[in-house]
Amino acid sequence: MITGTTRVAGVIGSPVRHSLSPALHNAAFVHRGFDAVYAAFEVARGRASHALDAMEHLDLLGLSVTMPHKEDMWACLSERGRLDPHAAALRTVNTVARDADGTLVGASTDGPGLVASLRVDAGCEPGGRRCAVIGAGGAARAISQALVEAGAAQVLVVARRVEQAEQAVAIAGPAAAVGRLGELRDVDVIVHATPVGMGERQGELPLDPELLHPGHLVVDAVYHPLDTALLQAARSAGAATLDGLGMLVHQAALQQRWWTGRLGDPVVMRAAAEAELTRRSAAPRH
């Protein structure tokens, strides 16, 4: 029940109506009996600062930040609040919370969410493993940084644009290096973090499936569709696989900790996300 004491959190983005975040976060709030609701707010490109104004003036509990606002929110909080070390280095923010003194804080939970999914959902400890990240955009940079921080022996960043890969490597740290697709044969964990395989690019592969073998764990950050062409190819090659819903769930659980001091329950959140995906797939198309 929504009352006069109910807190409000939400996700800002454009487009944002497709977001699974309301299903995830509202399920977590209900499960723990926390008096809050979570909604999706369509915010046009270039208006991240207005959303930050709303958080301050309406005393919102917190914000999730998705495209196209992650870099703009970083810039806003560089001036109006503070940034946690991950977000500061990445120059991107996906979470806005408050310090105990009320200061607005920008954080990035994408990379730690991927590492948590590896550990919890795949039973894979990245420490000491050879990893490769395909892509060099915001999510790929966050994942590369988090894998290095988790103690990976090596993190190869493989991207079409070498300059972007070099930037990701500089952020990630000394265990990272620019890689090539052919080098994927020699790693333990492959993480795909580009839009290939989703939306209009469903069915496409980001690599030659001949590179895959039973020694790999292949992770696809794409979660719609949940079973991508890459994951299907990886299973055909005998590799272990991990879908992208785990990263979404675990980064959201970490966002709950930023807002409330307690980690969201990933089991509850994943169940809510899967139920919502099932509902959408069954809904009539107009």
Description:
The protein is of the alpha/beta class and 286 residues long. It has two domains: 7-108 and 251-282, Leucine Dehydrogenase, chain A, domain 1 (Rossmann fold, 3-Layer(aba) Sandwich), CATH 3.40.50; 111-243, Rossmann fold. 40% of the residues lie in helices and 18% in strands. The protein is built from ten helices and twelve strands. The chain has helices at 21-32, 48-57, 70-80, 85-90, 110-121, 138-149, 162-172, 229-236, 245-260, 266-282; strands at 7-13, 36-42, 62-65, 82-83, 95-98, 104-107, 130-134, 154-158, 176-178, 189-192, 217-220, 240-242. The strands form two sheets. It has a six-stranded mixed beta sheet with strand order 2-1-3-5-6-4, with helices on both faces. Strands 9-8-7-10-11-12 form a six-stranded parallel beta sheet, with helices on both faces. The longest helix has 17 residues, at 266-282. The two termini are 32 Å apart. The model has no long low-confidence stretch (mean pLDDT 95).
